Amino acid sequence: MNCKMRVFFIVIFLGVFSLQAFSQNRSLSVQNLAAVNIDEVPDSEIKAYWLKAAESGLSEQNIYRLLLEKGLPEAELNKLSSRVELIFSEKSAAPASNAPGTEGKNNQPADRFSAKDAAVPMQKNKSDLTIFGADLFAENSLVFEPNLRIATPMGYILGPDDELLVNVFGYSEKTYNLTVNEEGNIYIPQVGPIFVNGLSIEQASTKIKNKLSSTIYKAIRSGQTRVQITLGKIRSIRVTVIGEAKKPGTYTISSLTTVFNLLYLCGGPSDMGSYRSIELIRGNQVKQKIDLYAFLLKGDQTDNILLQEGDVVRIPYYHTRVILNGHVKHQGKYEVMPAESFADVLGFCGGFADDAYKTAVTVYQLTDSEKKITDLTKEKYSTYNPMPSDSFVVGKLLDRFANKLVIKGAVIRPGEYELTNNMQLKDLLLKAGGVKQDAYSNRATISRLNNNGTPAQLSFNVDSVLNDQTQLALKKYDSITVYSIFDLENEVSINIDGQVNKPGRYKWADNITLKDMLLTAGGVTESGDLRNIEIARRIDNVNLKQLDHQQTEIITVNLADAMNGPDVILKPFDVINVRQKPEYAKQRTVLVEGMVTNPGRYTLKMSGDKISDILERAGWFRANADTTALVIKRLSKRSQVVDDREKVFSKLLNIKADSLNTSDRIRNEIYKEYDKISINLNAALENKKSPENMLLEDGDILTIEQNTNLVKVSGEVYFPTIIPFEKGASLKYYIQKSGSYTDQARKGGTLVIYPDGKAKKVKHFLFFKSYPQVVPRSEVFVPQKSEKNKDGVSLAEWSVILSSLAIVANVIINLKN
């Protein structure tokens, strides 16, 4: 049953036991309460009297006290309380009882605080999160949630609906759950009412102990009986938030709620609200002024006091707020009190960032008529009082050094060094550990800046400076370079190429020999010829005026006897070439696949092995092999050029380039990574000297296809398919079997592609057409019509054809020349 319902039913219940009701009722007569049996009173009468009592002004405690005074037994009073609870339980509105004698029952009075009922959910509000402290109220957080699971706070003031737990132990044992009624009293059986309203928990404890020791527990005085008093269930109070809060209004909260808890519930100050002058008004007087900065910056909760019934929290408008940007630890908007300076604002933001320019700050101000800019120097930080809308911008430290020197090159410890007063060049050289052995001492340089910022350069003798013969004073930003003798020399190298394991360029050294260089290059490969090593040596002072002059010396060296053979001292820029042995040859292999007896990879035995030789070693053909044709795939030794190859092929075959996509066979032919060689196998085997019985090369792939009795029809026909071969049937027969030509078919360009890769097309002579013969395993391909101009050829196609013809003509002319 919620608190509001419970209060309503308690008020109703007051009328049931009014004097008039008791006189009219046969069971609940005021004159005969001692003999009343609550079990005999119908629920309907109790409910009716309960509803009639709505106009009564008595409290629940007064009703119970009145009934007890009129003689109603305590047991019957407990029954009555339970009956009322049960009667209205169907509506979830059973009242709470707190009658004397019901100690230990966990019943909640009407105005008892319920965290669930009084909870005000924190709502997200749009706010300016650049305001310092606003992020604390921007999200749901438990930072300001009241803690109800704490010991009784010192100084807690009691009021109506607070519950006191009185535990008597020792010589006597008793526990009382006592609720402060509307009149501010608690009632202890056989002791009577005790007024505790407005008393602190400590004052009330003393008063209750004195009352108990003077009445029913006299052993308290001797210490044989002790009393412990704690706060049980707490009451709810109503407070109001006004002013510039995100959610002003009246809030029902627990009596343990503090000012900070309430600020959290109301969403904190709005964008125009003050964080530093919040007022707690109690009894029409300002009880406390709250400065949230004390908590945000130091964690100080001095202003976080407990709220009381009727308190008003007022959030006024802010008076002075400034903006702090730039290189500080926390940028944002800060509220400033009248007596605070810019130094205090720096304290709010955590101070300058590490890379901040701390000597001066730029202030942008607003006057009554225009904007204004002010340079605030370091000396005025603690005396300048910010004005409303001041905007402070902290700049960045310049990326330069006030006293930096740089030394690099042939010194022991190159790097950056400090420029001290009256520092000389010798001092810096000694700081850098001195110069290295390879230092070029005749000349070193100093790069510096003139007073007007233009660059300048000085030179000095290193030995002269170190021997105190020359004095040079240094300036900031000076950069000293000591050169190495190796920096002044050209890079000298030797090239080695040919049959060595690690060919390339290597650094030359004094007295390096040819054998040393061969070892450096990983040695000679198995095909390298030590008998014929060639050294190409550069000739100095070449006579360029002579027409046919010698520019390179060729030296041939024989290192066949590596141990005792001659050696050659190499000179800079020598080029060594280790040639291949003339008698060296690697094994060559070919792959035989398809319908042969023993397919697989075969090594060529003789340099002149031909097709018939390998087929013989492969055991000749299987029964289902096609012995009429053989296709050899040979790795291409030319680069693949496919930019406009589709168009060239389509022009030569009178087909559209797009129609190539309909024939995988033609497309693969264009984009192949090998050259395909078609062989008339019958001719090659009948006459081994025939050109068809060609010589094989390393990497060749010989494929013998299976003999099938099928013909494939593709391209621009209505039903591309595979048709059984019909001996003597013409090309038209297979076209008709595939549904005939489509509207886009180029009939005159029909091709027959034979098993050996060769292709023939329909020939035209006057009004006559000659169709190619169709054989088993061949493919009939019908191309698509081309879109042509009035000449029958597109401009792009003419461009490709003419370009190709020009290249061919150029080749022919060069050959003739």
Write the layout of secondary structure elements.
Elements: H1 3-14, H2 19-24, H3 43-52, H4 60-69, H5 74-87, H6 115-118, E1 163-170, E2 174-179, E3 185-188, E4 192-195, H7 201-213, H8 219-222, E5 225-231, E6 236-243, E7 249-254, H9 259-265, E8 278-282, E9 285-290, H10 292-298, E10 312-315, E11 321-326, E12 332-335, H11 342-348, E13 360-366, E14 371-377, E15 391-394, E16 404-409, E17 415-418, H12 425-431, E18 444-449, E19 455-460, H13 462-466, E20 479-482, E21 493-498, E22 504-507, H14 514-520, E23 528-538, E24 552-557, E25 575-580, E26 589-594, E27 600-603, H15 611-617, E28 629-635, H16 645-652, H17 664-670, E29 674-680, H18 681-686, E30 701-704, E31 710-715, E32 721-724, H19 731-737, E33 751-753, E34 759-761, E35 763-765, E36 768-770, E37 779-782, H20 795-816
Parallel strand pairs: 6-10, 11-15, 16-20, 21-25, 26-30, 31-37
Antiparallel strand pairs: 1-2, 1-5, 3-4, 6-7, 8-9, 8-10, 11-12, 13-14, 13-15, 16-17, 18-19, 18-20, 21-22, 23-24, 23-25, 26-27, 28-29, 28-30, 31-32, 33-34, 33-37, 35-36
